[in-house]
Structure formats: structure tokens, C-alpha cells
Design goal:
- This protein is an alpha+beta fold.
- The protein has a single domain, classed as Nucleoside Triphosphate Pyrophosphohydrolase (Alpha-Beta Complex).
- Strands 1, 2, 3, 4, 6, 7 and 9 form a seven-stranded mixed β-sheet that branches. A two-stranded antiparallel ribbon has the order 5-8.
- A hairpin with a 2-residue loop joins strand 1 and strand 2.
- The model has no long low-confidence stretch (mean pLDDT 86).
Length: 159
């Protein structure tokens, strides 16, 4: 029963941000820094911990803004995941994956940016040209599934 005992656990959100330009769909990807404890040097789409006092929507919108300077109005959950962390007492970090569409970038409004603490580079990559990247496990499929989910449901999601 919750009143008898509360666990302190880490919970994550992950975001997959798309944009359409000149008839092509691209996804924002970033290479994790080599010193990161989880998945060093692998490519991802952004995300991180849910802070105390945040709900999932607030967490993913904050994470994408902090990591890339991208503003999204809405993000839509489409799957759950977990990260195995056998060296922690928690053993698994649960998370939710969201998809969103680019609203605008900070600065001149055209490109994302990174601060260098979490990622070594980022780019908009066409979703049909992902084969040359070493992604965290399962992410390449999540990107394709995320785009299918978003494109099939965008008329409903954007109301």
C-alpha cells in the first residue's frame, strides 16, 4: 500500500522529433557524448529524467528544449520502454517514448543546437537514410514506428 512505503525511482521520457522540408521527412538525432554512463557514443533522439513535480508531457517538452533548443507545443506518447541498469538497486529505468513535430528552433529558428555536455553533435537526418548510424538499441525501429504513428494519427492529434 502506498501509504506504508514509497519507492524513490528514476523515470525517463524519450522524444522523437520530426520535420518536413522540401517533401522529405527528417528526424532529429544526436550523438551521445563518449563519457556518458548509458549508451556512450551512440545516436539517440533526446530525452532524460522526469523531474520532481513534472508530468510526462512537461518533462519531454523541457528535455527537447534544453537539449536542442527546440520548442514543441505537443508531444504524443506512443510506447513504453525500459533501460536495464543492473548496477543500480532499481535494476530497470522505465520510460515513455513521445513523438512530436518541430514547432521552431531557438535563435534564428532554423537549426537545433547542443551545449556539448550531453551530445557531441546533432542533425536532422532523413528517415530513409538511417542505416549508417549506430543507434541505442531499438531506436531505428522506434523512429520508423513513431513516424507511422504520427502520420496515421496527425489529423486527430493536432486537433
Amino acid at each position: 500500500m502506498r501509504e506504508d512505503h514509497r519507492e524513490l525511482i528514476e523515470v525517463h521520457v524519450a522524444g522523437i522529433c520530426f520535420r518536413e522540408s522540401e517533401g522529405r521527412v527528417s528526424v532529429l538525432i544526436a550523438k551521445r557524448g563518449a563519457e556518458r554512463s548509458l549508451y556512450p557514443g551512440l545516436w539517440e533522439c533526446g530525452g532524460g529524467q522526469v523531474n520532481a513535480g513534472e508530468n510526462f508531457d512537461e518533462a519531454i517538452i523541457r528535455q527537447i528544449r534544453e537539449e536542442f533548443g527546440i520548442s514543441v507545443d505537443r508531444a504524443f506518447p506512443f510506447k513504453t520502454y525500459e533501460i536495464a541498469v543492473p548496477d543500480l538497486s532499481q535494476k530497470r529505468i522505465p520510460g515513455i517514448v513521445f513523438v512530436s513535430f518541430l514547432c521552431k528552433c531557438a535563435g534564428d529558428g532554423s537549426e537545433p543546437f547542443i551545449d556539448g555536455r550531453e551530445h557531441s553533435e546533432c542533425r536532422w537526418q532523413p528517415i530513409d537514410e538511417l542505416s549508417g548510424f549506430d543507434f541505442i538499441p531499438g531506436l531505428r525501429d522506434d523512429i520508423r514506428t513513431g513516424w507511422e504513428f504520427y502520420s496515421r494519427n496527425s489529423d486527430i492529434l493536432l486537433q
